[in-house]
Amino acid sequence: MLTVKNVSKRFGKIMALNGVDLQLEPGTYGLIGPNGSGKTTLFRCVMGLLKPDSGSIEKPQHCGYLPQSFGVDGALSVYETLEYYAAIKKIPVKQQKAAIEEAVEAVNLSDRLKSRTGTLSGGMVRRLGIAQALLGDPRLILFDEPTAGLDPEERMRFKLLLTRLKKKGVPLIISTHIVEDVWAVCDQVVVLRKGHVLKQCKAGELSAMAEGKVYAVPTDRQADLTEPYLPVRSELIDGREAMRVVSALEQPGKRVEPILEDGYLCVIHDLL
To answer: Would you call 230 helix, strand, or coil by DSSP?
Structure first.
């Protein structure tokens, strides 16, 4: 369990976190919000890398953490790198080999144990970062922008890994500004904006918040759109090219079923 009570953190004139309250039980959570919303600051406070200006944080003793920027010593092998992190986590020497092998198998790096990290691709380094976070049977796992730099195949592999990790029954929190990364794997979402928690709910509930507010507007009717509206993307609807828009006002075109991204936009832009 992770409990965050009234946590605030300021950097000069910038209030990165402002009275954040969270209580997360075992499950998979998506911490989503625009860049600069406070996601990384919150993670660093939870991990003790930053001291909050106020409030309190209660967390398990053993945590796994993938930082947004995960650096490696290119001269070390994959095994040596994980051996280093195993020592930091105080995993007994006799248990380290088995723990490392289990971690690299989870991220599909078993065949690169002897490879120097300097020879790894960016996606492999990211997987190595995930592997070190899994060492030591953590009771809380934090992933900060875990799919940054991953190609589509790597991102799909990561989602499959999350599906397996869910079975461990520990709180697993994924911080991202890419909503689709949490679409299929997270039980709940926490929406953060300018250091405030705007919403914590089940993923399906967030989607439902955009009910009746999502339109597919054909190309020939886009000139009739009424401000304010949020253009989401172009897509094919009933075989015709259309713009998907979110708006609290009635718009031309066809109302369509909302998805998680639509609900997120409604929350972030105060369209509820």
So the answer is: strand
Alpha carbon 212 to its chain's center: 27
Distance CA 256, CA 238 (A): 11
Provide the pLDDT for residue 207: 92
Average pLDDT over residues 51-57: 97
DSSP state of 228: S
Q: Where are the alpha helices (DSSP H) in the chain?
A: 39-46, 78-88, 93-106, 122-134, 152-165, 180-183, 203-208, 260-268
3-state SS of 113-161? CCCEHHHCCHHHHHHHHHHHHHCCCCCEEEEECCCCCCCHHHHHHHHHH
**Helix, strand, coil percent values for the chain (each to nearest 5):** 35, 30, 35
Q: What is the C-alpha separation between 263 and 206, in angstroms, rounded?
A: 5
The per-residue pLDDT for range 74-113, each reduced to its tens digit, is 999 999 999 999 999 999 999 999 999 999 998 889 999 9
The answer to whether the beta carbons of residues 110 and 33 sit under 8 Å apart is no
- pTM of structure: 0.90
Pairing type for strands 140-144 and 214-218 reads unpaired
Alpha carbons 194 and 206: distance in angstroms, whole number: 19
The domains located in the chain, with CATH, are 1-61+139-206 (3.40.50.300), 70-133 (no CATH), 209-268 (no CATH)
Q: Phi then psi for 256, rounded to 5 degrees? A: -125, 165
